[in-house]
Amino acid sequence: MNSMLAGESAESQPQVQAAQRFPATVGRFDAPADRAVIDGLVRWVEERYREDLLKRPSKHVYVRTLPGPVIERIDRLRDSPLIRSLIAARVVAQFPGGSVIAPMKHTDELYVSHYNKDRGGDQGLFDRHYDGNLRFLPGSVVVRALIYLQSDATYKVVFHDSRVEKAFATYDFGLLDFHRELHWVEGQYNPADRQRILLKCNYLVTRRNAALLGRATLAANTGVFYVVKAAMEYSKSPTTPPQIVVGLLCNLFRRLNNVHPLIPLAIPLAFIGAVVAAFGWAIGHLTT
Ligand SMILES: [Fe+2]
Q1: Which residues are placed with Cβ below 5 angstroms of ligand 1, an ion?
Q2: Cα 288 to middle of ligand 1, angstroms
Q3: Cα of 244 from ligand 1 centre, angstroms
Q4: What average pLDDT does the segment 228-251 reach?
Q5: How far is the CA of 205 from the centre of ligand 1 (A)?
Q6: Which carries the bigger pLDDT value, residue 160 or residue 15?
Q7: d(CA 149, CA 259)
Q8: What is the pLDDT of residues 3-38, one digit of tens each?
Q9: CA–CA dist 132, 141 (Å, integer)
Q10: Which residues pair with 174 in a beta bridge?
């Protein structure tokens, strides 16, 4: 049984057995060829998004929407033996019978970040949170790679469940369990910060010889990923009432997910059920 440490809330208690969780891992691209790829990508991003970088607090772009030559360079980093071998070595504990590691390229993002504290969809970077909410699904792990193309190490990322902390600088990367690692960013908030540029690449790991399970898990992960990402993107730096409401819901659901992953899923279902019941009651009343 886990005992609660002084100052910890129920939100920060481990929600899963350590054996089910991919342990947070940090590493760095040291090879000159890899660093040249990263440097080239940074130059391209700064040139391509020059206008946006002056105006916007943060920017998420799906990698699959970028020009082909840029995607090829990102592929080299995502599929690098350095990252793949680290993932393979760390998932042996969860999958002693062998595993299949499948990049979820359709969900990969280029993220240009200016950390912001505006109660919008991006606020969660500073709050304790899990990235995903499917940690109750057995038999699969989603590993997320945070690849820092440009970063000045003034902020620290805390991977709470794995007891790992890292102030990421350019060429560093971190690997974490997308659904099972409670994490957050620490550091002195500075609105005048230089942007940091990173890649968020996701890999689905399933048991070997479990193709059907793998497809079902991939569909569930993709659905959750797109819904959450759309809500966060819509409500970042909110100005209109709908954006403010969605931003508040993002932060509410994030906190509820910290308590239990089924609560954020249950609330919309309960709401839909109540609406259907109300319609049924109204129709019944009108026809009698
Ligand atoms: Fe996160």
Answers
A1: 131
A2: 53
A3: 21
A4: 75
A5: 19
A6: 160
A7: 33
A8: 333 334 545 455 556 678 999 999 999 999 999 999
A9: 11
A10: 26, 146
